[in-house]
Amino acid sequence: MGLRTFALLVFLSGSLGAFAASRGAEIVPLKSGAAALSPQNTKLQFVCAHVGAKPDPRTGRFGKFTGKAQVEGQALKSLTMEIDTTSISTEFEKLTTHLKSPDFFDVRRFPTAKFESTKIAPGTGSSQVTGKLTMHGVTKEITFPATVEIGPSGLTLKSEFSIDRTEFGMNYDPTKVENKVLLTVVVGEKS
């Protein structure tokens, strides 16, 4: 990743975080110690950029997914998500079609992506969530930070982190598209 692109991703990460924080997340209610996650109460988006002098970052979302955040007392105990990759969308129809193709998500062969936590380590102000991400037919262990707030009426969760798309077999021309993809998950904000 070039220095300019890295700086842009850091800027975008900070901007997205500030934007999410300024809007404030709605508390997602708990039933039997769990919050059901869906596009109606959870934002799941990604940002990737072109390589070169004009990176033109592009934002994408998934319109269909389900998940569950299990809590115990004041601690997040597990987090699962199942994403319908055919529901991917961007602001550009041509880009959306390309992302669905074998160059990227190959949604005909791999219509589902999944995340299942295996360990959650609480921390001061931020938890570390570790789990298995399955995407494009490849399963990898990832760890990411998450700010979790749990109260009597429910929970909110905010996380921003990067993954390398090529680790999941999405090897489309790295001279044109950055390998690093910034993911944002906000439980308490609509997709």
Descriptive notes:
The chain is 15% helix and 47% strand. With 191 residues, the protein is of the alpha+beta class. The chain has a single domain, classed as Beta Barrel (Lipocalin). Strand 8 and strand 9 form a beta hairpin. The longest helix has 21 residues. It is elongated, with a radius of gyration of 16 Å.
CATH names the topology as: Lipocalin
Instruction: Report on the biggest sheet.
Output: 11 strands, antiparallel
> What is the CATH superfamily classification?
Lipid/polyisoprenoid-binding, YceI-like
**Radius of gyration from CA coordinates:** 16 Å
Number of domains: 1
- Taking pLDDT < 50 over at least 5 consecutive residues as the criterion, the unreliable ranges are 1-23
